[in-house]
């Protein structure tokens, strides 16, 4: 009996495809990667009640694409967002200014499809979201990194970059920023810098693309107004998500934009609508519960961050440097210069610890070479402590750090 030769798809694949994905082999024993949230804080009971209530009341609308709410998404969810954005971010908009999308990743794709062409230039924070950088690379768009400090993007550096591009006859397509709980650094851009960014945006004719996905998770509960809210010329596109406040697997995000841009993005959103059931359940759950759920979630995340910072101090001493983030689910950590976190990633994974190496989150690979991003939301307190201990052991074995003397000195000073 002869064995059939497997069909070879390789000659049919077009040039420029990304590298093939690896098969899923499960999460690492100690997983500090991704934007996963705390499984214990998903409001399961409330979501079950919301599912039952909204399906009994409106389930038959599932027979119509868009739930008879139109292509911009389930209207009660957009109305909830209108009130929430006004209360929390100072954004005055109507439900018709909001487009519901399948997570903020689809929001990134729609904005990019609308504005970008191969060879274009955009300005981004030097350290920023890997998903945004990867998309720009695939599109053949140049991402120019603007340095950060402990308060976010530096406006002097942004002004210099805009002036330099103007001298060379280049108008960047947008300024991409995560101003409120920056990813990966956790900083919050002050209101004065937001005003300065808007001034530069108007002066150079470059719109601002504001990614506010982590803005609900601020320890103090207080935030500056969104850049969108402060804009008087309409040159801002604002995106957000329920992934960090409720659950990432729901895949529900949103875009707030002027109709000139919204109408163009709607023409490109050819998926017949984002998941309807998720939108219905979120609207039903969030209207009565969001304002009490988020502070509870944030308190739990802050406690996990404290555990992570304590574990790093205990295991690494002064060999691990970090700023206390203002909120969110990530800690951006600097290890000694001789540590290559791309190599550390492989060695740590073999030991059961998954980390995000810094170069994947930066336009300056050398600067980020000894940095890493740790997500503290998903692992338990015990897993955080155990995982950091294993990571420290890998660092000692592979790179000779942390030096024991650093731990002794740190204890002596405390």
Please characterize this protein's 3D structure.
By secondary structure, the protein is an alpha/beta fold. It folds into two domains: 26-42 and 292-413, Aspartate Aminotransferase, domain 1; 44-289, Type I PLP-dependent aspartate aminotransferase-like (Major domain) (Aspartate Aminotransferase, domain 2), CATH 3.40.640. Helix content is 42%, strand content 13%. The protein has twelve helices and 15 strands. It has helices spanning 44-58, 75-89, 103-115, 130-138, 155-167, 191-204, 227-230, 259-268, 276-316, 341-350, 381-399, 404-413; strands at 30-31, 98-101, 121-125, 142-146, 148-149, 152-153, 175-177, 208-211, 236-241, 253-256, 321-322, 330-334, 353-354, 356-357, 371-375. The chain starts with 29 loop residues before the first strand and ends with a helix.
Please supply descriptive tags for the structure shown above:
414 residues, 2 domains, 42% helix, alpha/beta, seven-stranded mixed beta sheet, globular, disordered C terminus, single chain
Short description:
This protein is α/β, with parallel strands linked by helices and 414 residues long. It folds into two domains: 26-42 and 292-413, Aspartate Aminotransferase, domain 1; 44-289, Type I PLP-dependent aspartate aminotransferase-like (Major domain) (Aspartate Aminotransferase, domain 2, 3-Layer(aba) Sandwich), CATH 3.40.640.10.
What is the CA-based Rg, rounded? Answer: 22 Å
| Shape designation | globular
Q: Which structural category fits the helices and strands?
A: alpha/beta
Order of helices and strands: EHHEHEHEEEHEHEHEEHHEEHEEEHH
Report how far apart the termini are.
75 Å
Individual helix count: 12
